[in-house]
Structure formats: C-alpha cells, structure tokens
Amino acid sequence: MSRAYQNWARRNLLLNDFGDFKRHVLVCEDVLAFLARAAQNRARFDLIVLDPPSFSNSKRMQPTFDVKRDQVALLRRVAQLLAPGGELLFSNNRHGFKLDPEVASFAAVEEITQRTIPEDFKQRPPHGCWLLRRLAP
Fold first, then answer.
1. pLDDT band at 61 (very low <50, low <70, confident <90, very high)
2. Does some domain include residue 121?
3. Angle at 79 between CA 122 and CA 94, to 5 degrees
4. Residue 122: inside a domain, yes or no?
5. Of 58, 61, 11, 71, residue with least CA distance to 32
C-alpha cells in the first residue's frame, strides 16, 4: 500500500526493460481487497511477486495483518490467481519466519533464499524467499 515502494518498483521495471505498464501492473491498495476482486474477475497471472509486511495495522486495511499468522490463507488466495505454469515469488523479512508446511497442500514449494541474498548478507540473510507453483486442482 506504499506509494513510495510503488514508485521504486516502477523505476526498477523501467530500468530492466519491463516498461509495458499494460502488461506489468502495479497495484497500490489493500491486498485482500485486490485478491477478492481478482478472484471474482477470474484474473490469472504468469508471475506474482508477493512481499507482504511482517505486520500491518494500517488504517487503510482491516483487519490487522501478521505474516506468520496469515501466511497460509494469503498464499492460498494468491496461488489461486496463477495461470497454468505460473509462479509465485514469496518473500518476507520477518526474523525467524518459517513457511507453514500446510502450504505444500496447494503449492509446490522451493525455498530459494540463498539465491536471492547478496554475498555481503550470506551469513545473516535479511529475508526468506520461496518459489511456489500451484498444484493442479
């Protein structure tokens, strides 16, 4: 929901030749509202990058969000939006975060943290990162 992060993402997309903003969409809103609308519209995505906050009690979002508590419900809803063969890149920086084993009931999970960490941070990774592919219904 951060406009500053949206602007940062837009600049990065442009710098990496992904400037077709009809195809590469940035959305700045409560993710739960977006997910409900996308599911209702039967939207499908080839790639979803999901980097939720560790915790949020923003007045623009109800109820509060806790990535540890809410990860399974969030990942299930997001995975349902993947197109066949689509991938979900899930990252978060909550210290000590563990992916709930229940996620494997609806997605193939590959932990890729070490591939996403710069050399300077290998000893103490600042985040965890997973690649998820939706399992066939």
1. low
2. yes
3. 35
4. yes
5. 61
66 in Cβ contact with 36 (< 8 Å): no
The enclosing domain of 57 has a CATH number of 3.40.50.150
Domains identified in the chain, total number:
1
Of 52-56, 63-67, 108-112, 118-122, give the lowest mean pLDDT range.
52-56
Using CB atoms within 10 A of its CB, is residue 61 exposed (0-12), middle (13-18) or buried (19+)? middle
pLDDT of residue 111: 96
Q: Which residues contact 54 (CB under 8 A, 6 or more apart)?
A: 66, 67, 68, 92, 93, 94, 97
2 located within any domain: no
Query: Cα 87 vs. chain centroid, distance in angstroms?
Result: 10
How many residues are recorded in the chain? 137
In 3-state terms, what secondary structure has residue 134?
A: strand
Q: For residue 51, give the nearest of 37, 61, 65 by alpha carbon.
A: 65
